[in-house]
Amino acid sequence: MFVGHVREKEEATVNLPGAAGVTKQSLIGPAEGWAGWVMRQFTLAPGGFTPRHQHPWPHINYVVAGAGQLYLEAQEYQLEPGTIAYIPGGAEHQFLNTGTKALIFLCIVPEEGDK
C-alpha cells in the first residue's frame, strides 16, 4: 500500500540525445509495492520534446495538462488534457510541447522501461 504526493517525488532532467526541456518523476513502481510496472510523470517545458525513438516495451499515456503533439508511426496526434494513448512496443514515437505552458503526462511502462 502506498499514498503520497507528486511533489514528494524527485524530478530528474531527461538527458538523452534528441530531448530538450524534459523532466521525469517516477511516481509508483516496485519501491511502492507495484511489482513489474512503473507510473512516471513527464513534464515538457514550452518548446520541449522527447527524442523520436522506439523500444520493445509498450506504454500507456494520459495527458494531465498543457497542449502538444504525439508523433506515432508517421502520424501526428494533438494532445490536450484528457488525451489517452497506447503505444505498442516497437512503435516509433515522440512527444512535443506545442503550447505556452508545461505539457504534463503520465506514462505507465513495464519495470524494464524505467531504467
UniProtKB/TrEMBL annotation:
The keyword Metal-binding applies. It comes from the Bacteria. Keywords: Dioxygenase, Metal-binding, Oxidoreductase. Residues 42-109 form the Cupin type-2 domain. It holds the Pfam family Cupin_2. GO terms for molecular function: dioxygenase activity; metal ion binding. Signal peptide: none annotated. PANTHER family: CUPIN TYPE-2 DOMAIN-CONTAINING PROTEIN, OXALATE-BINDING PROTEIN. This is Quercetin dioxygenase-like cupin family protein.
